[in-house]
Amino acid sequence: MGDSHARLESLAELSQQLLERCRERGATQAEVSCSEESGLNVNVRMGEVETVESTRDRGIAVTVYFGKRKGSASTADLRETSLDSTVEQACAIARHTEDDAATGLADPELMARDMREFDSWHPWVIDADRAIDLALACEQAGRDSDARIENSDGASVGTGESIGIYANSHGFVGRERSTQHSLGCALIAGRGDAMQRDGWYSIALSADELESAASIGRKAAQRAASRLAPKQIATGEYPVLFASEMARSLVGHLLSAVSGGALYRRASFLVDAAGTKLFPEWFAIDERPFLPRGFRSSSFDAEGVATRESPLVQDGVLQRYILSSYSARKLGLQTTANAGGVHNLQVAANAGDFESMLGGMGRGLLVTELMGQGVNTVTGDYSRGAAGFWVEDGKIQYPVDGITIAGNLKSMFAAIEAVGSDVDTRSHVRTGSILVGRMTVAGEV
């Protein structure tokens, strides 16, 4: 993308020009987002190149407020006529909308002033040929590592750069830039009706933090082969250990239930739950927006509000909701600097590594895959297809699939017995494996 600092300055100047045009048209408030992204993605399968895609995108979004009326429009065209038309469209929409008492920019005194660097800019100098070679090597390493690997769903390499500006009529201008790179592989073990698929991937802001192509391929092969010859288990109530890459989905369900939109619509089983105990006393989740090389590190949210380190859950008690300024006003509260989402969550561990988590469970179900969307945020009812492994005496015995795990999220949260130290770092939600003491598992009748 060339000189990212120069491009950011150019976008910052453009944002100021657009804000001035909004003022000239009578807007009482306005905000502008400008972004540029570029990337390369390649996919291979069975030793052959399937796709090579180079991307370059740009977006300009303008939002204006006329009192309590709001209008938005966007464009990717930087020609003067297009920019003028975008501002005019936003203003025209605002003039024809109804008043909304909760609308408007975040309060000016909440704007971020301390702009930090998070070591998030690490361009990967890689061309399509080299990316293809890496993907092929990853897939081949997996296919060569186990004779039971009969087929492949392919391997992929991706790299991307993004820069962005958020500016508003409070005088706030925020600049962000980041890179993200990935390498992954999915393989198929067995043949015919006995086939099993699994994979592995690595993702990082800096390419030097990616796992090696060979290790990713071998791990994908091991995971696929380990699922061969699955058995059924009897329907019953058992402890369920969510592997770390699955455990973060439980945190995701919590976030959905405590998000402002769900709360002010009263479409959540956690309405009015702030200040109540939902988890065991030792359980904690902290938001950490200033992590070096964090996937969601930022000094400000999508409205320019200064982010801050803050507990979401402490001593098992829900401390707050996830609010933008709009949802906060709808609820009679103040924004939590979460317009656009959360900024790196850390779930505190109270147990050891993965092996010790298995040992602590003793007998039960290890879940390594979840299927379906059977989660009702309004009631908290949870029912999802799953696959994984049966555990006896703290040791994996055999793979299982074709099962359903069910419960209610509020009861599941309260029944969490342990969080492991085996943190999956491939997400902005950082958690180890999570052991839920008892859930209904539907297997053989």
UniProtKB/TrEMBL annotation:
A Gene Ontology molecular function term of the record: metallopeptidase activity
Domain of life: Bacteria
Pfam families tied to this protein: PmbA_TldD_1st, PmbA_TldD_2nd, PmbA_TldD_3rd
Positions in coiled-coil regions: none
Record domain Metalloprotease TldD/E C-terminal: where: 235-443
Database matches in Gene3D superfamilies: PmbA/TldD superfamily
Key words, A-Z: Hydrolase, Metalloprotease, Protease
Ranges for domain Metalloprotease TldD/E N-terminal: 30-94
Residue span, Metalloprotease TldD/E central domain: 122-228
Family label: Belongs to the peptidase U62 family.
PANTHER family xref list: METALLOPROTEASE PMBA
Stated name of the protein: Metalloprotease PmbA
Organism of provenance: Lysobacter niastensis
Chain's gene name: pmbA
